[in-house]
Amino acid sequence: MDAVGLNILLEELRADCEVAQDAARKAAFRSKETSPGHLEACAYELARFYNVIEQMLERICESFENQFEKRGDYHERLLQRLSLDLQGIRPAFIPKARVPDLRELKGFRHLVRHAYDLTLRADRLTELARLAQEISAELPAWCAAFGNKVRTEQGWQP
């Protein structure tokens, strides 16, 4: 990774943050509606939120580690990997305290994606929407801290 590559990555992550914030906001809004299909719309936005998170994690892996093998436990390994500080490669991106929360959202996305017959619970969707909003509010700071750590480790600070 060079300084230009890092700047490009951080801009991509910034754009991803905007999409994640939009999905989290819409999920919270949909969870409070009472119109037909509002729970399904909320579930869609929560799945979209986690998809963006996973895309961010993949971008970082590809930028610093060049590849990440997609096998059966890929989604869980991706979460675990990006919470690790890999000396000489890259700093952690996900704060360890947020891994369980992201795991909850990952599990819900999996359920929504693969369920044949699903009954959605309003209370659970409200809880997950709140979690998505909290994380989406923190994402820009995660990106900034990550970029600052990389710059410091590489000696690119002015």
Summarize the structure in short:
The protein has 158 residues and is mainly α. It contains five helices and no strands.
Description:
This protein is mainly α and 158 residues long. The chain has a single domain (3-154), classed as Up-down Bundle (Four Helix Bundle (Hemerythrin (Met), subunit A)). It has helices at residues 3-32, 38-65, 74-82, 99-114, 122-154. The model has no long low-confidence stretch (mean pLDDT 92).
Please render the helix and strand layout as text.
Blueprint: H1 3-32, H2 38-65, H3 74-82, H4 99-114, H5 122-154
How would you describe this structure in keywords?
158 residues, Four Helix Bundle (Hemerythrin (Met), subunit A), 5 helices, 73% helix, 0% strand
How far from one another are the termini? 18 Å
Q: Quickly give the structural class.
A: mainly alpha
Strand content: under 5%
Q: So what's the CATH class? A: Mainly Alpha
Percent of residues in helices comes to over 70%
Question: Average pLDDT, to the nearest integer?
Answer: 92
Number of domains: 1
**In the CATH scheme, what's the topology name?**
Four Helix Bundle (Hemerythrin (Met), subunit A)
Supply the CATH architecture: Up-down Bundle
Number of helices: 5
* Major beta sheet summary: none
What is the N-to-C order of secondary-structure elements (H for helix, E for strand)? HHHHH
What would you call the quaternary organization?
A: single chain
Question: What's the number of extended β-strand segments?
Answer: 0
Roughly how many Å is the radius of gyration? 17 Å
Q: Quick one: overall form?
A: elongated
Poorly predicted parts: none
